[in-house]
Design goal:
Blueprint (H helix, E strand, L loop, with lengths): L3 H147 L4 H49 L10 E5 L4 H7 L4 H10 L2 E3 L6 E5 L3 H17 L4 H29 L7 H9 L4 E2 L2 E2 H19 L3 H9 L15 H11 L4 H8 L10 H15 L5 H19 L4 E7 L4 E6 L6 H18 L7 E6 L9
Parallel strand pairs: 7-8
Antiparallel strand pairs: 1-3, 2-3, 4-5, 6-7
């Protein structure tokens, strides 16, 4: 029979095993719960990270979409602005053309009135001539009968004597008439020429701007000067090599200076530098790429500029190569004067004067507009700008009358036509106008100053004023020191002094003004 001890030991063992098992189960449940909690926490963290990542990508996508929309909007606005500018230019050209058509219609109406008046005058002259012929026939018959009665001449002898007498009288009257007409023509020719030239100048009031040899590029900050120069000066050397322009980077705040005698190269360099600054990438490879792109865009703008000026002048059938060369003259100067602006002004002056004189205005305008076309290529090819221009126009099928009129504008050949004389006169007017050229402007100002200085040097002169571009000088004298008789002699002395010391075209009117004033006050 088992003992108590033998029963208790297995029972304790079993209870211990149960307790160990229970502890082990509880420990596993706790570990499983902790694992599940960590997994849930990690899942929540991963979910939050995913939400933040999705929000960030969403914002980046939205920002990129906004940037693309902004670029599209800016491109659309720029294109719309360009189209508005082109529309404005076309409207302006159409307005000028409409004004020209209106003027032409008015001229045609005036011409019709003049022709009607001439027809009436011719009819009246025919009637007068018929009456005079009848009167002369009657007189001839009477004289013939009288001669036959008095001299006993035959009809043939009397007729021959009468014809000789009438021929002698007609020659005498014709000589007197020719002499009178020649005198009148000489008297009125100068006045009419002055009238035509003055009318043309007044109707073609063009602005003059003297071209300089430097351009300035504004910088957002002085820090960009170092980037433009580049490491060991490689960027600035690349810019100068690509553009042919000298870059002056000095202490001038917020700017660099481009120096060069070719306005085309300065314009390309200025646009290229501005584009590089805006882009931010400044290195030799990028510089070459941007400069080439700017050159291509500038060449296209040049062609459009030449076409726009030709359209404004009513020249619609010029060869595209001619238009391209004329556009290049925008970046060509002569004595500081812009050659394209000068050519357009000469064309307007020639057209107006040709219309006033009843000549071929279209031929005159065309030849005047193209007269300096050789200056667009005279730096690249051998020969004078005149010969280069003649060869180029003939090569591209220009009318021979236009070529010859253009060829005579420097009077190197005999005048081939009246239109050629008009072109030469218009060219001289445009070049000689004060302010058109730098050297002419300076000499013009110096002549006015010397003219006033001569007058001020005389005793008794209080003030002098040069008027009408130096063609008249008015001198105010002190009435206490100069009498009326002395004022007369003073004007003669000043005129003689001007003749001896100054060189000037035409004549200068010297007016001496002596004024006496009595002033009192009512108190």
């Amino acid at each position: 029979m088992p003992t108590l001890t033998s029963l208790v030991v297995p029972a304790v063992t079993i209870v211990g095993a149960i307790l160990v098992f229970a502890v082990w189960v509880a420990n596993r449940k706790r570990i499983a719960a902790e694992t599940v909690g960590r997994a849930e926490e990690q899942a929540l963290r991963i979910g939050r990270d995913a939400e933040r990542d999705a929000e960030t990508r969403k914002k980046e996508a939205l920002l990129e979409a906004k940037e693309k929309a902004h670029d599209i909007l800016m491109n659309a606005e720029r294109q719309a602005r360009q189209e508005r500018q082109q529309s404005a230019m076309l409207e302006q050209a159409l307005g000028k053309r409409e004004a020209g058509l209106t003027e032409r219609q008015a001229a045609i109406e005036r011409l019709e009135k003049e022709l009607n008046a001439r027809d009436r005058a011719v009819s009246e002259r025919e009637k007068s001539a018929a009456a005079a012929a009848a009167k002369y026939e009657q007189l001839v018959a009477t004289q013939q009968r009288e001669l036959e009665r008095v001299a006993g001449l035959t009809a043939d002898e009397a007729k021959e004597l009468l014809i000789k007498q009438m021929e002698s009288e007609a020659r005498h009257d014709a000589a007197n008439l020719l002499k009178r007409l020649d005198a009148e023509a000489r008297e009125t020719a100068v006045d009419r020429a002055k009238h035509y030239i003055t009318e043309a100048i007044q109707r073609s009031a063009a602005e003059h701007a003297i071209e300089t040899t430097v351009s300035v590029v504004d910088l957002p900050s002085d820090d960009l000067k170092g980037r433009i120069i580049g490491r060991e000066g490689r960027n600035i050397r690349a810019l100068e090599l690509a553009t042919g322009v000298d870059l002056i980077v000095d202490d001038t705040p917020g700017a660099i200076i481009l120096s060069g005698f070719d306005p085309y190269r300065r314009e390309v360099a200025k646009k290229a530098i501005e584009r590089l600054i805006a882009d931010g990438r400044i290195h030799p490879a990028r510089i070459e790429e941007v400069v080439q792109k700017v050159k291509d865009e500038t060449d296209e703008a040049i062609r459009k500029e030449g076409a726009a000026v030709a359209f404004e002048l009513g020249l619609h059938d010029l060869h595209p190569e001619i238009l391209r060369l004329m556009g290049r003259l925008k970046f060509r100067t002569s004595y500081g004067q812009n050659v394209l602006a000068h050519s357009a002004e000469v064309a307007r002056l020639a057209g107006i004067m040709a219309k006033e004189l009843g000549l071929d205005a279209h031929c005159a305008v065309r030849a005047a507009f193209l007269h300096d076309i050789g200056k667009a290529i005279d730096r690249e090819m051998e020969g004078t700008h005149l010969q280069l221009g003649i060869d180029f126009l003939r090569k591209h099928g220009e009318n021979e009358a236009v070529v010859m009129a253009m060829a005579a504008h420097h009077m190197d050949i005999d005048w081939p036509s009246l239109e050629a004389m008009i072109v030469q006169a218009a060219d001289a007017i445009s070049a000689a106008r004060p302010g058109a050229r730098r050297d002419i402007l300076e000499s013009y100002v110096k002549r006015l100053e010397k003219l006033e200085g001569i007058a001020d040097s005389f005793k008794g002169v209080s003030k002098s004023f040069a008027l009408q571009a130096g063609r008249e000088i008015r001198i105010m004298v002190e009435s206490e020191k100069i009498s009326d008789e002395e004022a007369v002699w003073l004007s003669k002395d000043i005129a003689r002094r001007i003749e001896n010391e100054l060189e000037y075209p035409g004549q200068i009117k010297v007016t001496v003004i002596r004024e006496t004033r009595a002033v009192d006050y009512a108190k």
